[in-house]
């Protein structure tokens, strides 16, 4: 049985992602911190991305660098930063430095019986930074939406 | 009259259809087919973010503000234009526009002494679509992570049995 993934813009500067896993926290933590395991899930096939390289030294003060290829783009995409805090089985905090005003991400693993609640919290330096991240990610697929918006505006005008 | 449903949800991020889409949160709540699926509704609730909805509904609860949106649907207008058309003081109009702006329904831009207002639908709609795509990314990742958790659990069970021997 698949658990739902939720995403919410919690405030002007924050995004929160949640999911529950059927397993203990130390296992979810292990899958998040061992590069050979991380590599198997961080670039989902369903999303059209795959790893070109995956380097991650997951300990406080360590760094990471992920390079992906994407079906829709010829240029590889690099994501990198450093781990500010790595507390075994419960919490990882890292920076996202591929853009100047990237978020600080915190993932927590909370064991409840034989399940683990994962909460990923992304805090942007400002409202503008999160708005920009959304705007830059939206432009590529927005053509169709803009057409529909135009239709809406025509409806508003004629009503 | 402005159809407030269409202002808040001009396009369904699931089907990408407009008015005719049955995914519209207003209609889906009436349809037993959708109402029976809590994940469906949950996903919709998340996409449209409660806080933004509250702000949008509050902004739309006022007839003058709905009139302002209708007018901006025809053409961009300055605060002064709007104040004249609605027979209001500049201060009064600024307040109304401020409420609409905070709800993301209107954007304003100042050039010299003139502040021009335009419909801000595009931003709301982009944000809802972006959040849904972002959710799909993590959902895809976590589906794969599920499999790894399962296989690590199996390994641990086998390992545990060996230890006991």
Describe the structure.
The complex is a heterodimer of chains A (159) and B (165). By secondary structure, chain A is of the alpha+beta class. Chain A has a single domain (6-126), classed as START domain (Alpha-D-Glucose-1,6-Bisphosphate, Chain A, domain 4, 2-Layer Sandwich). Chain A contains 4 helices and 8 strands. Chain A has helices at 25-33, 35-41, 127-138, 143-158; strands at 6-11, 14-21, 49-56, 63-70, 73-87, 91-95, 104-112, 115-123. The longest helix of chain A has 16 residues, at 143-158. The model of chain A is unreliable at 138-150 (pLDDT under 50). By secondary structure, chain B is mainly α. Chain B has one domain (4-164): Arc Repressor Mutant, subunit A. Chain B has 9 helices and 3 strands; from the N terminus they run ααααααβααββα. Chain B has helices at residues 4-8, 25-28, 32-35, 38-48, 50-60, 63-74, 79-85, 90-102, 121-164, and strands at 77-78, 106-111, 114-119. In chain B, strands 1-3-2 form a 3-stranded antiparallel sheet. In chain B, a hairpin with a 2-residue loop joins strand 2 (106-111) and strand 3 (114-119). In chain B, helix 5 packs antiparallel against helix 8 (90-102) and helix 7 (79-85) packs across helix 8 (90-102). The chains are: A alpha+beta (159), B mainly alpha (165). Chains A and B meet through strand 1, strand 2, helix 1, helix 2 and helix 3 of A and helix 4, helix 6 and helix 9 of B.
């Amino acid at each position: 049985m698949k658990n739902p993934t939720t995403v919410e813009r919690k405030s002007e500067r924050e995004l929160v992602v949640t999911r529950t896993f059927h397993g203990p926290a130390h296992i979810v933590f292990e899958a998040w911190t061992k590069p050979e395991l991380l590599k198997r899930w961080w670039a989902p096939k369903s999303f059209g991305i795959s790893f070109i390289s995956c380097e991650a030294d997951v300990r406080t003060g360590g760094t990471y660098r992920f390079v992906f290829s994407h079906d829709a783009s010829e240029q590889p995409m690099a994501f990198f930063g450093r781990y500010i805090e790595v507390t075994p089985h419960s919490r990882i905090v890292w920076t996202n430095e591929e853009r100047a005003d990237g978020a600080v991400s915190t993932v927590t693993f909370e064991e409840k019986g034989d399940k683990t609640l994962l909460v990923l919290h992304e805090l942007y330096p400002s409202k503008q930074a999160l708005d920009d991240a959304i705007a830059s990610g939206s432009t590529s697929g927005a053509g169709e939406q803009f057409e529909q918006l135009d239709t809406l505006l025509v409806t508003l005008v004629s009503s | 009259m402005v159809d407030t449903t269409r202002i808040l949800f001009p396009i369904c991020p699931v089907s990408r259809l407009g008015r005719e889409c049955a995914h519209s949160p207003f209609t889906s709540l009436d349809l037993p087919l959708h109402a029976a699926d809590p994940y469906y509704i949950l996903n919709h609730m998340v996409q449209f973010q409660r806080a933004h909805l509250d702000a949008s509904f509050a902004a739309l609860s006022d007839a003058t503000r709905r009139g302002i949106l209708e007018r901006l649907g025809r053409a961009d207008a300055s605060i002064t234009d709007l104040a004249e058309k609605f027979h209001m003081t500049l201060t009064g109009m600024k307040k109304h526009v401020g409420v609409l702006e905070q709800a993301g329904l209107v954007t304003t831009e100042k050039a010299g002494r003139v502040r021009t207002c335009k419909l801000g639908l595009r931003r709301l709609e982009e944000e809802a679509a972006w959040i849904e795509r972002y959710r799909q990314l993590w959902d895809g990742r976590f589906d794969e992570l599920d499999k790894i958790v399962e296989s690590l659990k199996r390994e641990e069970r086998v390992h545990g049995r060996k230890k006991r021997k």
